[in-house]
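Sequence in, structure out. Go.
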Amino acid sequence: MKKQTLWAVLTLALMSGCGYNTLQTTDEGINAAWSEVVNQYQRRADLVPNLVKTVQGFAKQEKEILLGVTEARSQVGALQVSAKTLEDPQAFSRFQKAQGELGGALQRLLVVAENYPQLKSDQNFRDLQAQLEGTENRIAVARTRYIDAVNSYNVTVRRFPSNLTAKWFGFKVKPNFSVENEKAIATPPVVDFGTEPK
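Output:
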């Protein structure tokens, strides 16, 4: 009887320091942070139809830009995103690429809008633009929280002795957001103000 009690106490002592609870906690933190990322991206996607409709009323000749935004939004909408996306690096990469394409298309749309003073003065457009800017800020915050949650989790998965528990229970390193073209952002932009004044 004493051996069984000693064995039970020893097992409990070993299990309390194995990192299992930390892995569970940080994994749930990642899922919550991921849900917020997806929520903010969905908010942005929901703004797109109204933004396109408003711009379309003023800039009918910009069909190519409007079509690009609409196509990028439909690609985002076609993705099936869940917490399982985090387990599949290819699905995570597709999600990140589709969101990047939508972000780029929206930026091109807003640049085009600069050429239409009557559009820039339209209250609906200004409201939508403000909502879009706020949403982009929320996306940045949500992504930062996700990155922090993944960092904490991945450190736990890789650090000894919790790495043994992670391996035993099948916890794997999770993907994080990355920059698609690191060389492009490392190159300083070329600024050209045209011809110099005489």
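Check: Confidence is low (pLDDT under 50) at residues 191-198. The CA atoms of residues 164 and 170 lie 10 Å apart.
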